[in-house]
Amino acid sequence: MAERKTPAIIDDLSVKEIYANKLVGTTFDGGTLSITMGVARIFPATGGELESEASPQIHVTARLALSPAAAVELANNLGKMLNKLKEITAIRQADQKSH
């Protein structure tokens, strides 16, 4: 059986990096997984408003549409990353308890 070659990755430096700190939503229509991401912003109170009345807003910053295969790859890689973060957290907590 012939080996599959890993495709070369061409990094286009003109592609914008997009920041998001909120997951707005996800949908799957049977052919595409759509992920909408945003950034949470709280605008300061103005005029006679109390600070507690400042309105939080989430601004959509990215919409990502993935094929099912790409969605599986993303899920697998995120799973690996989360497991690594759990390991690191457990090590740090053990170090703190020993000091």
What's the short story on this structure?
The protein has 99 residues and is of the alpha+beta class. The protein folds into 2 domains: 18-66, no CATH class; 68-99. Helix content is 31%, strand content 28%.
What does this molecule look like?
Helix content is 31%, strand content 28%. It has 99 residues and is of the alpha+beta class. It folds into 2 domains: 49 residues, no CATH class; 32 residues. A hairpin with a 4-residue loop joins strand 1 and strand 2. The longest helix has 31 residues. It is extended, with a radius of gyration of 21 Å.
Which structural class fits the helix and strand makeup? Answer: alpha+beta
Q: Note the total helix count.
A: 1
Helix content: 25-40%
DSSP E strands, number: 3
Strand order of the largest sheet: 1-2-3
Radius of gyration: 21 Å
Key traits:
99 residues, alpha+beta, 1 helix, 31% helix
Helices and strands, with pairings:
Layout: E1 22-28, E2 33-42, E3 56-66, H1 68-98
Antiparallel strand pairs: 1-2, 2-3
